[in-house]
Amino acid sequence: MRDHMWTRRDWMKASLAAGAVSALPHWARAFDTTDSHINVTGSDSLRSHAEARGLLFGCAVDPALLDMDGMAAGTSTDPYTTLIATQANIVVAENSMKWGPLRPTPTTYDFAQADRLMRFAAIAGQRVRGHNLCWHEQLPSWFKTTATNDNASKLLTDHIQTVAGRYRGKIHSWDVVNEAVELKDGRADGLRNSPWLGLIGPEYIELAFKTAAETDPAAKLVYNDYGIELDTDDNAMKRGQVVMLVRRLKARNIPIHAVGLQSHLLASGAHAGEGLRKFIREMKAMGLEVYVTEMDVNTRGVEGGPDVQDQAVAQIYRDYLSLVLAEPNASVALTWGITDRHTWLNAGLGDWAKRPDGAQQRPLPFDADLQPTPAFVAARAAIDAARPLTQALSQKGQQLDPALMYQPFKVQGSPDAPKLSAAPGSPAASFVRPTQQ
Ligand code: XIL
User: Fold this and answer.
1) 193, 225, 271, 313: most buried by Cβ count inside 10 Å?
2) CA 214 – ligand 1 centroid, Å
3) pLDDT of residue 434
4) Which architecture does CATH list for 40-401?
5) What average pLDDT does this structure show over 346-359?
């Protein structure tokens, strides 16, 4: 991995130039990384900035790409692995905890990849989000022919008991139900005509939440959805249905602790604003938190080269994260991947992800070479602005001491590489910070 040292730009001065992106000379842009010296490791990482402000910040991970041996030995130099370890204090499996990957047959489970992520996170001292226990997509191929009205409730509860049971006490939060609202399906309750709704009825949602609560009482239980972020009519209507869903669950004493905003945003078009702020406050009034669960920024509507894309993406990161993280019940944010090398937006999934010019999408804080993008600078600035620096530390009665802040997992050549405190791979393994060795 290339050394991440660049000269630091004056944030305030540069941000004045944020408006007309493509007309500006390179040096005047708001989120400059290319010729500036920004250290992204150690106390300059997203992880450290988040921790110093009491926030959880992280990303979705493909466990198959992780260098587990190097990680366990404390010697990994794999760029993807070290990036996840150093930048995130919370991770989520991009696919490995979904039904499809976990359930090769109706009677068997394959936990290999999910277990890898749990092991990795234990070594790296990270929290783990569980995604997800009930969704209409990525169901195993056998589901269609096996699930019936008679067995669907048992299929759902068995799955939740087995999966959430395996990781009981180790999961920060479970996306218990994913994407259950779809206005186009035309139901008065706003619910999607999903296989689960067809097989069980609308009660499948509370069945899932109740079962998750019984199985892992320590995990925060989340309803996760998309299309509820923006100040548009359709987003506002869907938000309204999500509010109604949460109210119905609360009225029936169903345990639900947070709503996840997937936050797959477009760099062009409508932005998030007052509607989302009101929604987050309404959730607070009901005692719920709000998490940003899957943030990335799609530039399919932005004309221009990589620099123009990067500036547009960075603006959204700064504006969106600033808006959400300003709310006291919003202190968790994850991006959907960490590097543009591995993003679903470049996986050829559909026209909604394709740029008309055929160029690659650049939706994440690190580019395809794993170098920080302007989105990194913007995300970190939004984290910095979200809470006073000393708040989290003074709450713990600590002095602000940079040596106490997170130090990176061993990066090649780094003199301050931390040692692991427990047997490699053991769940108890955690970092010993260099100052404590
Ligand atoms: C996506 C993954 O990123 C892809 O690799 C996979 O092919 C499809 O699913 N909303 C969600 C996520 O809740 O689980 C989806 O993840 C993206 C949209």
Assistant:
1) 313
2) 27
3) 28
4) Alpha-Beta Barrel (3.20)
5) 95
- Examine the pLDDT at 249 and tell me if it is beyond 60: yes
Residues in the chain, total: 437
- Residue pair 45/89 in contact (Cβ under 8 Å)? The answer is no
From the CA of 398, how far away is ligand 1's center (Å)? 40
Question: Residue 177 CA to chain centroid, in angstroms?
Answer: 16
Q: Where are the domains of the chain?
A: 40-401
Joined together, the tokens standing for residue 417 give 């590489």
Note if 229 is an active site residue. no
Largest Cα–Cα separation, the chain: 65
Cα-to-centroid distance, 343 and ligand 1 (Å):
10
Q: Which residues pair with 260 in a beta bridge?
A: 224, 291
Is residue 203 annotated as a catalytic residue, yes or no? no
**Is the CB of residue 95 below 6 angstroms from any atom belonging to ligand 1?**
yes
Confirm or reject: Cβ of 343 under 6 Å from ligand 1: no
pTM for this entry = 0.86
Gap from CA of 95 to ligand 1 centroid (Å) = 7
- Whole-angstrom distance, CA of residue 56 vs CA of residue 333: 6
Is the beta carbon of 344 within 6 A of some atom in ligand 1? yes
Q: Is 178 in the pocket of ligand 1 (CB under 6 A)?
A: yes
Closest approach atom of ligand 1 to CA 135 = 13
Bridge partners of 60, per DSSP, are 92
Give the up-direction half-sphere exposure of residue 233: CA atoms within 13 A in the CB hemisphere. Answer: 0
Compute CA 343 distance to the chain's CA centroid, rounded to the nearest angstrom: 13
Phi, psi of 324 (to 5 degrees): -70, -50
